[in-house]
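Renewal narrative, Specific Aim 1. Our central claim is that a sequence can be written position by position from structural information alone. The example that follows is taken directly from our test logs and has not been curated for this report. It begins with the structure tokens describing the chain, in the order in which they were read.
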């Protein structure tokens, strides 16, 4: 982790108390969601082990709103660990935090609204920590491809 990443991480760790998400952490009964419940359920963000995250790098969208808020720091920690395009957890976390539709402006606005509805319980301190994370990711030259989506999400979602 770089000094900048560490600063952002400190902000995240202070903003998100390690709370146990309400159970179950997924609500659907498909194999993937049951697998997420088995590996990420009953854990606080500081108890999630790296192999579980590596396995579920793209699972943030499957989590309930409560679990999304409780477990997001586990994903952000691994994302900050290596701010490069090779980091799959970073890539998929950015897709989740910064929805940008391939289709058109209306579809993107719809995704923004959907995500905003998911995060009403995020405190100002938590939103500000997420914005700090996004700003840092946006500044990484390696992540140019995400720049537009990040800039948009900072101003349209993570207020
Ligand atoms: Zn499912």
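The sequence written for that structure reads:
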């Amino acid at each position: 982790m770089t000094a900048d990443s560490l600063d952002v991480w400190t902000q995240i760790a202070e903003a998100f108390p390690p709370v146990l998400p309400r159970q179950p952490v997924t609500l659907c009964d498909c194999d993937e969601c049951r697998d997420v419940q088995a590996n990420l359920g009953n854990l606080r963000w500081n108890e999630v082990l790296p192999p579980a995250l590596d396995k579920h790098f793209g699972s943030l969208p499957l989590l309930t709103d409560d679990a999304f808020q409780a477990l997001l720091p586990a994903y952000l920690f691994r994302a900050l660990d290596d701010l490069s395009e090779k980091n799959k957890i970073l890539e998929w976390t950015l897709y989740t935090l910064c929805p940008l539709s391939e289709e058109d402006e209306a579809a993107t606005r719809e995704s923004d609204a959907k995500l905003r509805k998911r995060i009403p319980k995020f405190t100002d301190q938590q939103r500000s920590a997420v914005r700090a994370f996004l700003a840092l990711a946006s500044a990484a030259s390696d992540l140019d491809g995400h720049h537009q989506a990040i800039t948009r999400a900072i101003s349209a979602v993570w207020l």
